[in-house]
Design brief:
Elements (H helix, E strand, L loop, with lengths): L4 H10 L4 E10 L5 E7 L5 E7 L6 H13 L2 E12 L3 E2 L5 E15 L9 E8 L8 H11 L6 E2 L5
Parallel strand pairs: 1-6, 4-8
Antiparallel strand pairs: 1-3, 2-3, 2-7, 4-6, 5-6
InterPro entries: NUDIX_hydrolase-like_dom_sf, NUDIX_hydrolase_dom
Cofactor: Mg(2+)
Protein name: NUDIX domain-containing protein
Length: 159
């Protein structure tokens, strides 16, 4: 997965120190009760489509871009599902990162899913009643996207 130029520029200044980034997650749901998933090239796990917001980019626009870049599916954003601060993490090279993640419910408008970049090994629709092993957070994102309550989920008190 290529590191965006703006991240490389920041890393040249801050080294491996913690970098706060805006992350995006898509729950793309079709009309036949399926969700669009990618099998990640870095760890082989199935996951929701996700990415990093570019500086100055609007979140919904950035997410539509990420979905198309990774899966060749054109989608539209229907609503914001959740806003959350994810736990800090690190990459094998020692870079420390933490994401403020915006999760959106989306629907496809055209295109057949396929691997469309080097970030994924496979892309496909998965029936909601037969999902592969997803992280707890991704399962919660899907549940929240399926909720009839249109209000986004967010934490209201510090832990």
């Amino acid at each position: 997965m290529p590191t965006p130029k703006f991240v490389l520029d920041l890393r040249a200044k801050i080294g491996h120190d913690l970098l706060w980034l805006s992350g995006l997650t898509a729950v793309v749901l079709n009309d036949t009760d399926e969700v669009l998933l990618v099998r990640r090239a870095d760890n082989g796990r199935w996951s929701l489509v996700a990415g990093i917001l570019e500086p100055g980019e609007q979140p919904a626009v950035g997410l539509v871009r990420e979905i198309q870049e990774e899966t060749a599916v054109e989608a539209v954003v229907e609503r914001l599902v959740s806003v959350e601060s994810l736990p800090p993490g690190s990459y094998p090279n020692g870079d420390q990162v933490q994401f403020l993640d915006l999760c959106f419910r989306c629907r496809p408008v055209r295109g057949e899913p396929r691997v469309n970049d080097d970030e994924s090994l496979d892309v496909r629709w998965w029936p909601l009643n037969d999902l592969p092993d997803l992280t707890d957070r991704e399962q919660v994102c899907i549940q929240n996207a399926l909720s009839p309550n249109p209000a986004p989920v967010y934490v209201t008190a510090a832990d």
